[in-house]
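Hello,

Following up on my earlier ticket. Below are the two sequence lines again, exactly as submitted.
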Amino acid sequence: MIRLLSIVSFAALAIAAPVTAQETEKPEFPSPNAIVDAAPASAWVKIAPSDLLVMDLAPDAEGNPRRVVIQLMPAPPSYGWIGNIRKLATAHWWDGTSINRVQDNYVVQWGDASEEKALPEGLETVPESEYVQRFRATDMEEAKRQIVAQIPELAGSLIDDMMRKQMGADSYAPSNVHMGGWPTALDPNVGERWPIHCYGAVGVGRNLSPDTGSGAELYTVIGHAPRHLDRNIAVVGRIIEGMEYLSSLPRGKGQLGFYEDASKRIPINSIRLASTLPESDQPRFEYLNTEGESFAQYADARANRRDPFFIKPAGGADICNIPVPVRRVSGK
Amino acid sequence: MIRLLSIVSFAALAIAAPVTAQETEKPEFPSPNAIVDAAPASAWVKIAPSDLLVMDLAPDAEGNPRRVVIQLMPAPPSYGWIGNIRKLATAHWWDGTSINRVQDNYVVQWGDASEEKALPEGLETVPESEYVQRFRATDMEEAKRQIVAQIPELAGSLIDDMMRKQMGADSYAPSNVHMGGWPTALDPNVGERWPIHCYGAVGVGRNLSPDTGSGAELYTVIGHAPRHLDRNIAVVGRIIEGMEYLSSLPRGKGQLGFYEDASKRIPINSIRLASTLPESDQPRFEYLNTEGESFAQYADARANRRDPFFIKPAGGADICNIPVPVRRVSGK
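Thanks for your patience. The regenerated structure is below:
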């Protein structure tokens, strides 16, 4: 929610801790990357290994390993599918399946090409209502309280004014905000919140409604955000490492980008929850706290590029053009 | 401009010619593709061969040819750079250069990796003012007249109301409209119009301002629309065929996605204006007239997906999610 902060640009910058800029930049206008690099350790949030899926594809033609890491959303909505995905990984269900579809400017999709492999016991049939989360008006009030606690100058009507003007609206939602590390859309009019199909988002393939998919068939976005899929399919996570192994795959020549020639499919050796790997093999990641000042400055700098290359700052940014910074760390 | 029409959804549909839908679809709710497939021949506009660049990359590892076709914008803004590009192609300047940069979710860039190759005589130094086109208020009035001529029901204040409400606004522009076959942004407040960095857009690399680039260094967008580049770099065209040969290239491992290892660069055998090729080798393309009813219906269907897969139409669409349909045709 308090990506709102991000938006309270100059106000936030004025009270924020000084940022160390690279020497080549005007110190008062650091680039988004320089802001992220300078963020203190306390601005980063560890991702639990139980929220990470590790997908090992077959090595490439030159024998190089191809490991892709997916971060699962740690909170509703979509929790039913995410539960299924944990069960599928624990059952090693994806081992020996494949990437079967690569459609340019759209998606890479993987699962069981035969469509005959039996699913593990105990998967949930998730209702369409879980594409969104019901949103309580009190959350908005709480968000405002938190902002004002950090930036007292915004008390009173100013915070309402900021929120009304500055929560990024577009054709797809009355407002778009980062909450808990994820890009989400909000419709206060109907009290709903839902995750956004940005580049790298991972979703659950399905058949025609009322089917909602089990979670066994997954895809990721490799082009311009297909936001028309929002609220129509479950978003369950995002690629945080190894995206290039998916986005650079040859496009399928069949309908919808499916590989017509089965030999073109890319074998999946295994998909595991990171928490089930030997500890030495567990990847460790953290993301920039979307409720903190560093993220606020980063988002503001993405929306108002003042680093030397730019001559005309946009004055705003699509939420999918403010990707949440995620980085690999060593140790626990 | 009259993508506005696109927006005048139900009104336009009500008076439009019936559309032949595929049997598998509810005939009253054809998919965007079905609308395009059913568009009459008169809805398509031929692209002049002098507005097409044909880029032949070295064949891939299996010996398959890789031809990419770029459509140049036929009208201002950006005309200075496009003039330079015609000269560069005529001088065969790009032959023997290469693709040097592939940055995931951003751009593929090509040109002279040595940065030492002499440019042809007579290239123009284009001023930054040409990133945009000055927009005359009378254009808006003319657009309204054209709409009302086609849909008399919109006469009077209704057309003003529609335009105010429905021109797709976002964080990057007060309004976004398709004009003359291209996605453009408009700011009536400052009287400016500029082309949009959608997926597949082709732009002109440059150094720090006041440099604006000559047109010798080009890039295309292979990820989410980087709209913060709008008005900061010249957009000169778009990829209309062979995009997959660029978007699926291995990502560069160097800074900004440059190939650190020169052997990874992809050689460019030649770039030619299609009009200078032997007539039998000239590709022919046409695009769906963005000022016509078929495009209006298509855009409306992209914004309000009613085909069977969708359960919740978005009610709007990012202009980059309404790509202008382009198709290859035979003969002249």
